[in-house]
């Protein structure tokens, strides 16, 4: 039965590279406002699953619905409009090194055609939330790993997306910085965003009681469980 509150639905989704399946026959139903960990060893298909959701890759077979929209039917020129609903946080940050922290975060709003005054207010508000407003004029190479990840989170959330995807966002961080990243994502979950985090950090996962854990093994859905 369809869940009317579903924001992400997958029906028998597979992705092949040549003859090899990165993910195979995945069916999922994720409700709006859920906090999800996608777990599994390296090579299990976690990153591929994320890429399929924000259309960095297209499924070889199956269907994916985002907020009721069948993304397999979206033309390439409509992909940017889909991505305005989705914020993405990468393990390696993917910040532009020769642009300031402010400019990196503002890019999302500039691409959406937001007015400059609104951009300034929204960017500074989210930088304050992340505790890095004092770094607005700094450049990414001068920041610590934890600070760069907070900039990456700010960029992902500044457009108020309904879905936030984080691909191993704490993989290169120490425990304190990793917990800080998780705390920030919980704040946005409290505001209604649906959060999906691909991670193999068992300590981080077990500390998040509100989450549901989805396990992948060799690209296949191996189980799903609510954290107690």
TrEMBL record:
InterPro entries, A to Z: AAA+_ATPase, ABC_transporter-like_ATP-bd, ABC_transporter-like_CS, ABC_transpr_LolD-like, Cell_div_FtsE, MacB-like_ATP-bd, P-loop_NTPase
Main localization, broad class: membrane
Gene Ontology biological process terms from the UniProt entry: cell division
UniProt entry tagged with the keyword Cell division: yes
Family the entry assigns: Belongs to the ABC transporter superfamily.
Annotated function: Part of the ABC transporter FtsEX involved in cellular division. Important for assembly or stability of the septal ring.
Protein name: Cell division ATP-binding protein FtsE
């Amino acid at each position: 039965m369809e869940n009317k509150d579903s924001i992400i639905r997958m029906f028998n989704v597979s992705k092949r590279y040549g003859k090899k399946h990165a993910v195979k026959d995945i069916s999922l139903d994720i409700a709006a406002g859920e906090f999800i960990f996608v777990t599994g060893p390296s090579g299990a298909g976690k990153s591929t699953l994320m890429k399929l959701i924000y259309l960095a890759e297209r499924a070889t077979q199956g269907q994916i619905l985002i907020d009721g929209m069948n993304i397999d039917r979206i033309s390439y020129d409509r992909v940017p409009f889909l991505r305005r609903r989705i914020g993405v946080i990468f393990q390696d940050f993917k910040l532009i090194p020769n642009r300031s922290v402010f400019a990196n975060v503002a890019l999302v709003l500039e691409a959406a055609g937001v007015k400059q005054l609104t951009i300034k207010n929204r960017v500074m508000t989210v930088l304050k939330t992340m505790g890095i407003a004092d770094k607005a004029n700094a450049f990414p190479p001068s920041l610590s790993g934890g600070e760069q990840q907070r900039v990456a989170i700010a960029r992902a959330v500044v457009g108020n997306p309904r879905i936030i995807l984080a691909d191993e966002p704490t993989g290169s961080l120490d425990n304190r910085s990793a917990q800080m990243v998780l705390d920030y994502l919980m704040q946005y979950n409290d505001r209604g965003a649906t959060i999906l985090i691909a991670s193999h950090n068992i300590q981080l996962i077990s500390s998040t009681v509100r989450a549901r854990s989805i396990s992948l093994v060799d690209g296949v859905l191996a189980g799903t469980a609510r954290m107690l």
